[in-house]
Sequence to fold (1029 residues):
Amino acid sequence: MNMAENVKVRTEETLRVKIGEAKNLPPHSVTGSGRNTFCAILLDREEIFRTATVEKSLNPFFGEEFHGEIPRKFRYLSFYIYDKNDKALGKVSLRKRELHKYHGKEHWFSLLPVDVQSEVQGKVHLEFRFDEYLSSSPDVTYASHRMAVRVIECNDLMVINGACNPYAVVTLSYGQGRHREEVRRTNVKKKTISPLFDETFFFDLDNKGQNHDRNNYYVEDIFSGELCISVWHDESRMAREVLGSIFPGVFLGEIKISLRDLNTSGIQNAWYFLRAKNDMRQPHENVGSMRLKISYTAEQVFASQYYDDLRNVLLESPDIQPISSSAAYILGQIVDNRQEVAQPLVKVFHHHGKIVPFIKTLAIHEIKQTLDHNTLFRGNSLLTKVLDELMKLVGLPYLHFTIKPIIHQICSEHLSCEIDPARLKEGENLEVNMETLKNYIKHIFDAIMVSGLACPGIMCEVFAALKKAAQDHLPDKKEVRYQVVCGFIFLRFFAPAILGPRFFDLTTDTQDETVHRTLTLISKVIQRLGNLVSSQSWTYCPKEDYMVPVFEHFSDACHVEAVKMYLDIISSSTKKHSKQMDIEQPVVLKEGMLIKRAQGRKKFGLKNFKRRYFVLTNQTLTYSRSKDDDPLFVIPIGNILAVEKLEEQSFKMKYMFQVIQPQRTLYVQANNCVEEKEWLDILTKVSNKNKNRLKEFHPAAYLNGHWLCCKAVDQSSPGCTPVTGGLPVTEIQVDLDSDREVEKIHSLFLTHMDKMEALHDMCGILEVYSGEAVVNNTSGFQIEDSKSCFETLNEVLKCVISLEQEHLHYRKALQREMVTGSFETPIGDDSLIISNDNDTKL
Amino acid sequence: MREYKLVVLGSGGVGKSALTVQFVQGIFVEKYDPTIEDSYRKQVEVDGQQCMLEILDTAGTEQFTAMRDLYMKNGQGFLLVYSITAQSTFNDLQDLREQILRVKDTDEVPMILVGNKCDLEDERVVGKDQGAKLAQSWDCGFVETSAKAKINVNEIFFSLVRAINKKNPDTRGGKKSGKSKSSCTLL
Fold:
């Protein structure tokens, strides 16, 4: 199959950059002091990101990250350090094709001075033709030589101060030392970066020689000449008039061609990359260096069917026993950078609806391997990375909905919350700070506690799976059930987001020291509050002394109960069939005496009102005669289609709400408005993710043969009013590109082929020597079952090799199709923009 | 009095806080509570000289690594801690060390390799020779410790102070050793 002809192949590029810091920037020339600087990322000449400004430093610490898809072709990735007044202090320019050298590792790069003359971009389309024609002079007729240079067009020129009025200059220099020249110029094109000139200039070659008598030599002579085509921006008529014709405008780039390199027979037509001026290769001054971590990936993604085999092998992972013999786990073993592995795996498994079983299997595996349950899921394993990535993938809208307003408030109020006496600044009052801090913590804590409802379903399912795994394998360690959930939702989600809101897109601003300190303190307390639940008692843990009063303030039964309930809500998956539900210990969420109207289970008889004791767990709503009696009626959470208030007119009673089920509706009266709201809220929370949840309901009751609200006669007529308690939009469907992710995984396997083969060999040896520990396991591979591992490896190898064959075909076909000098592949890719091959330490 | 900025680094659950709290307060923290970022000050005497130690106990959780850069930039000496009961925590240190060297932009940074939980001999998976070998290749000190049994806890902090002293002998002017001026003098 010819894949190059197949337009289905797409190239997807991603760039991830960590801008660390710069150092030894040149001091201010006048004051000699620090500067206010920021760093910008540029694709060619287009700025795609800039950091916040770091004040008064020649060693600015930026600590920012950029992550994005690259939607267009580019040649150079550059980083500019600007003084606040937009003067460029230095830059790092890297060619696209050398980016792989720095992939995923941090490096210090030397900064180079920025010179306007070196800043070029774009290309020019030219045509050259050599004519021989008969020329006659009075004495003799002889063959003359003439060169035609056609300047056709330019593309993608640089914009100077928001304008580009380009023109081209064709210069032929010749003679000894090329000191003689002939200059032609095109017309100026207004306001375009892709001017169409189509002007042809003729250069007579014959009378340029030094010896007029010998034609043959003329040509020889002239061919030592050089042609230069330069492009300029005609800045303004004003500038020209004031400065005269000496001022040519702004240089946009040039190309230089030795006439010797041109083919004299026939027409040559080609695109050329514009280059910087040649004469600035002088040793440059030292303008400092900067630390960057650059990860650039480009994937050639084929049509979907090419990925089916590898995808299937991967998706089987949760079913492989032991999991350490599965393709996904093996990938985690051979690649050191777990994040690089976790990202595509999460997307693939999530996309194909297998993320929950995958995480569950990994979790069970990890539980079995952890000796001390205190440190369960605390290491940096494939499981924890997968969960981190999943929460970032599906949880951001939820995170934003929950704490963004408060984070924003904290950042804008800019109040000091320092409670460490040793760090207290002059004029600050510890008591005042303490109150501010407590107030912030309370806000964030409350916001999280009431947000359980909004937690994305997939996260809830994962938490439920984790809880269950802990329950099954550590049945006597009750506290671990909470610990595993809060170890993710607090420790790996809320706490890091509060501490570094920019990394979770909660804000785009950088935090100064005061705000950062406030966020750190809040993050610590929130983490601790989450952790309280898993401990038997909330005794003070002897860490920093000054934190004790804050912890004590929040460490009471009330907060612990709130956390417990929150954790229960986000870790109950109500949509699961009842068989699984039974295993899960029901957790009481709310209970109390209420008055309910008979549901009409009997065809006849009065529908009276009775006092009943209601109990809501994460699984059912039940009522009984009194607290200790057996339930009279059980409503599984899954049967709750909606929970809504009931209009007072229905029964002329206040505080009534209705629990709508498939066959009937339960009408309940609470004792007061507060209680009513509590029941409404908690019932909505537990039932909100039911798939069969109603969209409409009847706000009043069905009495005397019709609905009081809409007068409809049919008791089964659909509701007339939209349900309330509409979920905030925190579950945004992420559009995932499974093929692309599998391609990423393919390339991970491919780049770690050596390790895969080593593992393969080791499994083979273990198999032959029937598992005897003869293998010196220096690689740190974990092989539980050599046979199944060996088999999986064989399959993966087969898929990867066959997929790579396709890549090879495609690359060859591309190469065949590539024409140097075409619009896509202009001549002169090795531009003279000074590149940074000389980064200091590699 | 000379000030020392020490940073305790390592994966989650290796006992960074247990070591730090044991050293600073002489208590073993029974209850496990993952750290976000804690800092302590303690005045000690090392080789007859009074020192003020500012110890930063960091998060082992990878979600907080965005902050690591700053710790590394500001820290003068590092304790790289693993647990002798978990191989992965040992393997994780290589990256940490590399990151420190990158951030500091030098090959000589005072650090001590620490194998914690040496009281759990039965559960040991990282051999003492493995630790010693790694420390040798890094050209740094190596100590196995137990925060619980209070083995070698003070030693690691003292060794780190000595390592800092060795690299940057105290210039007896009482100059504040904060700003990283030294890294500029490389070229």
In short: The two ends of chain B are 31 Å apart (CA to CA). The longest helix of chain B spans residues 87-104.
